[in-house]
Amino acid sequence: GQQLNQSPQSMFIQEGEDVSMNCTSSSIFNTWLWYKQEPGEGPVLLIALYKAGELTSNGRLTAQFGITRKDSFLNISASIPSDVGIYFCAGQGQAGTALIFGKGTTLSVSS
Amino acid sequence: EAGVVQSPRYKIIEKKQPVAFWCNPISGHNTLYWYLQNLGQGPELLIRYENEEAVDDSQLPKDRFSAERLKGVDSTLKIQPAELGDSAVYLCASSPRRGSTDTQYFGPGTRLTVL
Fold it and tell me: What confidence tier does B101 reach under pLDDT thresholds 50, 70, 90?
C-alpha cells in the first residue's frame, strides 16, 4: 500500500543532542500526525497538526505541517534515554479516513 | 479515561488454523480501525467502521479475513484459515468525530505468529 517517505531510517545519538526527522509525500494531506512506538506496544500519539504552516510543541518535541501540505518534520530537543523508540509520521486526507504511515525512524540514545 | 483495549496480546497458531482478535475502543469513539503492521513497517489499514457500518474494507483480504462490529462498539477480526504470511501485529484504533478533523488512538496490538 501507499506509504510516506520518512527519513532518516535510523539514528544513533548521544544523550542531550537534538534530533530531526521528516516525512514527505506525493499527495496532499489535511492532517499530519507523529506517533512513537515502543517494543510490544501500539503507536502513541505525540503531536497532531491540522493546518499548513502550523508549528506545534509538546514538551521537548516540536513538529511542523509543511506549507505545501506534502511534508512534515519532528524535532526532539535535548534527547534523553527514554526517547528511544520508533517514530512514525502519518498523513490523513479526509477526516476519518485511514492514516498513511511512513516506515518509521528508529531512535537510539546512548547516555 | 481507558484506552483502546485489545486481546489477546499474543497468539501463536499453526497454519490453516482460525484465529480471532478482539478490540474495545475508547468510550464514545464512533470510528474504529483495524491495521496490520508488518515488521519494520508502519501500520496499514485493513478495515474502517463508522459505528456498525464497514465504510472502507478495500484492503481486507476477504477470502480469509472477516470483521464485525455488531453493536457499533467492540469489534472482532477473524482469519480463517491463517497462513504463514499473516504473522504480524494487528492493531486496533479508534477516533471520535470532531467536525472536520480527528485523531486516532491505538491499542497495544495483538502479535500473531503463524507456524
Answer: low
